[in-house]
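queue> pop job 88
queue> type: inverse folding (structure -> sequence)
queue> payload:
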């Protein structure tokens, strides 16, 4: 699903919106991405699709301002990169960075991907809610947040993984050719359930971070690792 470069007028004749991708099955062995949204396409629905394998991020909001999209009830299995990703570095020809605000990623079943969900390069105000993430042997993170201001992680269930896996990880974003560099800011982690996982929550960088009512249980390694100097609020106030 593709909009037009620099087209931000939702009333324009060539605006990209209200598209639906439902109940498809993708064999990802020869796919870079299975479902891709790019340029400021918005108010689209991606739901009930099954994707087995992919070489890059399976469901990808491609880092050109995609906003207010709904990604729900999809199953992504065994991707070499993220099951669902928001923000993309692009290449030498198309220099991408952040997706737009207000995307909703919920109730997806993500199994054995490198990252279940990845948000990067300044993508703002994403709601990541009620996803079920099961890590495999090669998984690195259940949910990985880099420069993604205002992201909320709410009620996600994460399990599995081996030694190097972290269920939730916050880390700095090196950007891409100077674009999208930054740290996690204004991130809220609430009512997430991490059980029978290799490791729990790791915070390497960030500011204005909040953790409330998360459950971390049956962890093989570390339940919580916070880098020196990082402050995390435990307040229940919104």
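queue> result:
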């Amino acid at each position: 699903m593709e909009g037009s470069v620099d087209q931000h007028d939702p009333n324009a004749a060539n605006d990209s919106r209200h598209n639906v991708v439902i109940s498809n099955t993708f064999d990802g062995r020869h796919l870079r991405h299975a479902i891709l949204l790019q340029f400021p396409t918005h108010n689209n629905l991606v739901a009930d699709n099954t994707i087995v394998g992919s070489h890059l991020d399976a469901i990808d909001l491609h880092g050109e301002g995609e906003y207010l999209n709904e990604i729900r009830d999809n199953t992504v299995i065994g991707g070499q990169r993220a099951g669902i990703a928001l923000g993309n570095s692009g290449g030498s020809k198309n220099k991408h960075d952040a997706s737009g605000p207000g995307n909703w990623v919920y109730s997806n079943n993500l199994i054995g991907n490198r990252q279940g969900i990845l948000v990067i390069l300044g993508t703002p105000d994403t709601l990541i809610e009620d996803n079920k993430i099961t890590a495999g042997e090669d998984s690195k993170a259940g949910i990985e947040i880099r420069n993604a201001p205002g992201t909320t992680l709410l009620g996600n269930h994460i399990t599995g993984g081996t030694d190097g896996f972290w269920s939730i990880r916050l880390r700095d974003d090196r950007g891409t050719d100077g674009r999208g560099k930054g740290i996690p800011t204004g991130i809220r982690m609430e009512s997430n359930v991490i059980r029978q996982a290799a490791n729990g929550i790791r915070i390497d960088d960030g500011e204005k971070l909040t953790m409330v009512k998360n459950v971390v249980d049956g962890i093989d390694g570390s339940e919580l690792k916070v880098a020196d100097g990082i402050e995390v609020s435990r307040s229940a106030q919104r």
